[in-house]
Amino acid sequence: MSDWIKAARLRTLPLSLSGIIMGSFIAKWRLWGEGGTWDWKIFVLALLVTLLYQVLSNYANDYGDGIKGTDAKRASEAEARAVASGKITAKQMRNAVILFSVISLIATVALLYLAFIPDYITEFYIFIGLGVASILAAIGYTVGKKPYGYMGLGDLFVFVFFGLVSVCGSYFLFTKTFSWDMLLPGTAVGMMSMAVLNLNNMRDIESDRLSGKNSFALRIGFKNAMIYEMVLLQFPLILILIFLALNGFLQSQNYYVFIVMILIIPFAKLRRKIMEVKEPRQLDPFLKQVGILTFMMAVMTAFGLNFFR
């Protein structure tokens, strides 16, 4: 059991929850202002679905990189990856991917049934399609004949599914409407998710070169990937600030909503420490730190909007 828990890579879970928290609690704040209702059951199910997607993705990545021999070339990670180390066989991991795909789909249908049936049938089927696409994206990063992670497209998929779909989609589950300003927090979370993936790919840049995994970091080179990382970590808080400004908080008396801006300090420290790294393997500790900062950004934005009215 411990090997399966390690393969689930629990340190990635806060990052996956961030988009749901951001979208759901912005929806709660907006519904409160409009006299609408916010269903906590939808929120709980949305969290469950997201966790299932993340574990599915981690298992699929372990399986895909394991059978392709990519993990075997990673001196820093080979011991921890289950298939590459032999702690879990490729067949067992493949079965786990199939099982979690089925469970994820069932949980998705349950969530969407609760959110949309009986009054929003069209939206129900549209989101079923998004759910299936999310499952396929979770698997397709490293699995298949042409996994998109091996073609340098991982950043794009992460931005879309962990950012825009997660934030805007969870917002829609509650409000049944789309608001253009939601693209701002959606992009903020998406950029943070890209920052985590880019750090991961920067860390593994040499081993990926040997295994033929052409990540975006490998395509542009370590130096340019570092610049790219700084850009990704610079803009999320700015986007959140713009979102708050567009919603009138600069003119309001509710300055507590800007509590999320406290994160400017840890963001600046993190960027400085990452820039000081000379060896790719030294980037590993920052993966967890960026994930936690993303989670804190979502929680503090939600807290500021909903608990200091």
Overall mean pLDDT stands at: 91
* Alpha-carbon Rg, integer: 19 Å
Question: What's the number of helices?
Answer: 14
End-to-end Cα distance, whole Å, is 45 Å
The assigned structural class equals mainly alpha
Low-confidence stretches: none
Q: What is the number of domains?
A: 1
How would the blueprint of this fold be written?
Elements lengths: L1 H6 L5 H22 L5 H28 L14 H4 L4 H27 L4 H20 L13 H22 L7 H21 L1 H7 L4 H5 L1 H13 L1 H11 L17 H12 L8 H24 L2
Keywords: Cell membrane, Membrane, Menaquinone biosynthesis, Transferase, Transmembrane, Transmembrane helix
Family: Belongs to the MenA family. Type 1 subfamily.
InterPro entries: MenA (IPR004657), UbiA_prenyltransferase (IPR000537), UbiA_sf (IPR044878), UBIAD1 (IPR026046)
Structure description:
Its main location: membrane. It is a multi-pass membrane protein. This is 1,4-dihydroxy-2-naphthoate octaprenyltransferase. This protein is mostly helical. The protein has one domain. Helix content is 72%, strand content 0%. The protein has helices spanning 2-7, 13-34, 40-67, 82-85, 90-116, 121-140, 154-175, 183-203, 205-211, 216-220, 222-234, 236-246, 264-275, 284-307. Helix 2 packs antiparallel against helix 8, helix 3 packs parallel to helix 6 (121-140) and helix 11 (222-234) runs antiparallel to helix 13. The model has no long low-confidence stretch (mean pLDDT 91).
Short description:
This protein has 309 residues and is an all-alpha fold.
